[in-house]
TrEMBL record:
Organism: Pseudomonas quercus
Chain ranges passing through the membrane: none
Pfam families tied to this protein: CinA (PF02464)
Protein name per the record: CinA family protein
Record domain CinA C-terminal: where: 13-162
InterPro entries in the record: CinA-like_C, CinA_C
Amino acid sequence: MDLPEAVVVDLEAMVAYLMANKLYLATAESCTAGLIAAALGSVPGGGKVMESGYVVYSPTAKQRLLGVSLATIDQFGLTSEEVAREMAKGALEDSEANVAVATTGVAGPDPMDDIAPGTVCFAWAFTVQGQTRLFSLTHRFKGDRQQVIRQATWHALGELKRFHQQVLSR
């Protein structure tokens, strides 16, 4: 799905939302290069809602730090919702967080493995009453590398709240 320039998330409101809902976040970032964690960390109080941040580019780092299966990478590729889901789940399992967001994709400027620049796969994982709830999406953003990274960061944070609301409504 092609998306226009992402709307910038109100980071202070996001930190307040995470605090109010007792959400403690871990990030598992590839193509966003740690910008999600950095964005939240730039806001006063951001450290109170951040548990950890993983920046993992290589397949071996994804496997070693987050438990992503090499079979999943081989079958679906690094830019896949399946890999993003395993990254998010691994971040939850390796931390004290109760929510995780993961990104993997091709920021550009060139395609990689026949995947168009701007393609980003996301996953959000929530631990609720001992159960893990996973959500994932793939979007294609327009713009140069830095624009794609920024848009993906805002999208990851904006959708976190939406998916959390879905978890609460069940």
